[in-house]
Design a protein that fits this description.
By secondary structure, this protein is α/β, with parallel strands linked by helices. The chain has ten helices and five strands, in the order βαβαβαβαβαααααα. The chain has a five-stranded parallel beta sheet, with helices on both faces. α7 crosses α9 and α7 crosses α10. The longest helix is centred in the C-terminal third of the chain and has 14 residues. This is Response regulator transcription factor.
Length: 230
């Protein structure tokens, strides 16, 4: 059985203690530490090497988004041993925590590489499911759940469509990109584009690689930020 190493970064110590008890109740999860500010979260990521970090958006010293950017944007910063190379250090998956359902900071968190976000009042069962989901390589929030928030924020710019933002994609990949940007699942994309679901998954992987994106929610943000969806 693979054991998933989990850390928490939140300035509410009681909340952290609750998460610790929840994690320690699961045979396939291991609690590896808590941090109470953004700088401490970076140190924790370096020293404990968690597989998954639950990261509060708003924390003292530096916020969770800046901490996420530093953790995910500079993998060499996680190498504590001078003999280790950055390629040998696996980056943690980060789930952002927020108390606001329409928190615009979530958009910045997605850009920073977060795998999704959770409301802090969600159920313990959903927290556990989310940890396992991101560890398996999936986002913990359906892109359709963020479409309205992203649209509201990016439409204020009234920018013209920037077709060059997806110029690197093939014609079929552009079609799949736009379907994914509207929040469609792989099965729905396959049905709309008359392709198999496995082919849809392959196109999504290629799109993420070519556009240097890390998740399907980043596809949504990339589309709206570049005016590619009306």
């Amino acid at each position: 059985m693979t054991v998933i190493r989990v850390a928490i970064a939140d300035d509410q110590q009681l909340f952290c203690s609750g998460i610790q008890m929840l994690i320690e109740s699961q045979a396939d999860l291991e609690f590896v530490g808590a941090a109470y500010d953004g700088e401490a979260a970076i140190v924790l990521a370096q020293s404990a090497r968690p597989d998954v970090i639950l990261m509060d958006i708003r924390m003292p010293i530096i916020d969770g988004i800046e901490a996420t950017t530093r953790i995910l944007g500079t993998p060499e910063g996680l190498a504590g041993d001078a003999n280790e190379t950055s390629s040998s250090v696996a980056q943690p998956k980060i789930i952002m925590l927020t108390t606001f359902q329409r928190d615009e900071a979530v958009i910045r968190a997605i850009r920073a590489g977060a795998e999704g976000f959770l409301m802090k009042d969600t159920t313990p069962e959903f927290v556990l499911a989310s940890i396992r989901t991101v560890h398996a390589g999936h986002a913990v929030i359906a892109p359709s759940s963020t479409v309205d928030l992203i649209r509201q924020r990016t439409n204020r710019t009234n920018r013209e469509p920037a077709e060059e933002a997806i110029a690197v994609l093939s014609a079929r990949e552009k079609e799949v990109f736009l379907l994914a940007a509207r929040g469609l699942s792989n099965a729905e994309i396959a049905q709309a584009a008359y392709i198999s679901e496995s082919t849809a998954k392959s196109h999504i992987r290629n799109i993420l690689a070519k556009l240097a994106l890390t998740s399907r929610v980043q596809i949504v943000a990339h589309a709206y930020e570049n005016g590619l969806l009306s």
